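ESCALATION

Customer reports they have been waiting on this structure for their group meeting. Please prioritize. Original submission:
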Amino acid sequence: MEHGGITPQVVIKEGKAVAAIENVIEDDPDIALMVLAAGDSGEGPGPLVSAIAGTGGTFSIPVTVVPTSLTDADNDDLV
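Update from on-call: job pushed to the front of the queue and completed.
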């Protein structure tokens, strides 16, 4: 499925989540933004968002966290 003229790529890595994501970003200069969905369990934003937030902003690209309540129409308004 293409989004905005870009076909998403699925990447599966083993290891610590934050380190694996950092490696993928370093290896692919075309990655310019990371978008994560917050968890909806009521127990916080979710383990991946929490782990990334705990890095203190060391990623070389912007990281955006969107709420689970964001609708497709809301998303279209952001673009």
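Sent to customer with the following note: The first helix runs from residue 17 to 27.
Escalation resolved.
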